[in-house]
Amino acid sequence: MSFQLKAEKDKVMGRLTGDMDSHLIGRGGFAFTGLRFDKLGATEYTLVTVAVDVSGSVELFEKELLSAIKLAVDACKKSPRSDNILVRVLLFSTKFQGGVSELHGFKPLTDIDVAAYPALHPSGSTPLWDAVYSSIGATNIYAELLANQDYGVNAITFVITDGANNSSTATMAMIKHELKKAISGEKLESMISILVGINSAECRTYLEEFQKEAGMTHYKDIGDATPRNLAKLAAFVSRSVSSQSQALGTGVPSKQIAATI
Amino acid sequence: MKFHSDDYFHIGHEHVVAGKPCQDYALSGLSGGVAYATVSDGCSTGGNTDVGARLVALSAAKAIHTLGDAVTGPKRDYAVEAIVFHQQTILNEVKTLLSVTRNDMLATCLYAVVSERGGFVHVRGDGVVAFVKRNGSILLHRFDWANNTPFYPEYLNDDVSSFVEAHGGVEDAHALTEEKWLLTNNECKHISTTTHSIAHGMGGMLIDINQEVVKNELAYVAVFTDGVEAVDGMDWKEAAAHLLDFKNTAGVFAKRRMIRFVTKEATARGVGPSDDIAYAAIRVEHESQGGAP
Fold it and tell me: Which of A112, A172, A229, B60 has its Cα between 20 and 30 A from that of B230?
């Protein structure tokens, strides 16, 4: 049973699942998990989301992509701010009920064992909008809950895809609404959302237009899915996470996000 | 029953604009079965009292660590004397080692100690003590010396006569005022106002915390420097209540609360804390909340 079906079944905000609480995002059946607040001892956190396209076309570089995700998350552990980072990793493909499936919800880096990340098994089409909506929506909700508990919060989100949206429940209006909320500064001190294109030469124009129309902060194209480029992607993610976390408390997003990967 | 502690301090607006350091300090911790919370407020017209405040708080903590479980034994007066003696011994050594002067050491000392056997709060100087009950009510004690001239323990190493002189020259004169207030959901009730003699105040004000109160009623004990009384546009009782309104008790609960208080709630009324502010709190986790029996 997929995560989303479980959340649908529960229909309860904040249902307790061990140390993780599950939460619904809006009324569209999207859900996410995050560590219980009584387990969060610091004063402030950067929420990091890495959403990864696992549609069929990713199959050609499946292993390299998984390695890059592992490398990126593991590299965040070396950040001087690692104790103040909570990471959520989700996969997206139409093979999942609702388009997205969490590898894990927002949790501290010390609780994440990247060696336990399963093989991606790419298949299906690309519900890109669902992935963006889930990423930003979950960040907004968890950030609001954290802020209400006195934590300082900012966020950075990466959505990595090799193709255009072709099957989503979420609409452009839903995405725009969440992104607008994210940058309003009411709960999240600052938010950076990055759309990353990989092997995406054919749909680069589409992705650039989508990024602008939706209101995402950046579009980055890493070019072909070579091991070298994927390693660069991993380094870019960990560097950007560390930089955005160091910006927490300044009231503005990090200015140190590299122009190119 | 389990005990948790946390502390935080923040520079006041007046110190920022005047280029002064934060002269308040807070410290808390656990030593065996005893939890402690201490704050110190350095005199703004003294010497390097930012250093003095830290030394006073650190030495109080060290004295409590040294004495261990004995500090919450049945003989409160003995425990207080022992803490003061050990603290002074430590300070004498440190002052010599670091060539710290008398003027550097002009700092208050408020501390609370709590264990399953009960506890107490000892106030040497001015500031506020808060007891938060499990039913949410807050009992506040405010200690205020006349003429904005608080007692500093360092005076006892020197000639106390100038301090007594500043208050009229008679040790029996009442120069220390203690206000008690009870805050509940519905009201802010004045309980009493009592004055104490200079001699009494110099010995330090002792508030006993009964074993049964710890066991059945107490949720938090907190000590504040008088910075809590100088939050722009906010009554001191309201400021204290804000700082005790912990949204989440995990980890650095007091630090989170004060950061949010300073950056949001206080600055919504004005410049925020105009004087340096420090507080330290002990949380009592009862069995029903997960604290081991």
Answer: B60
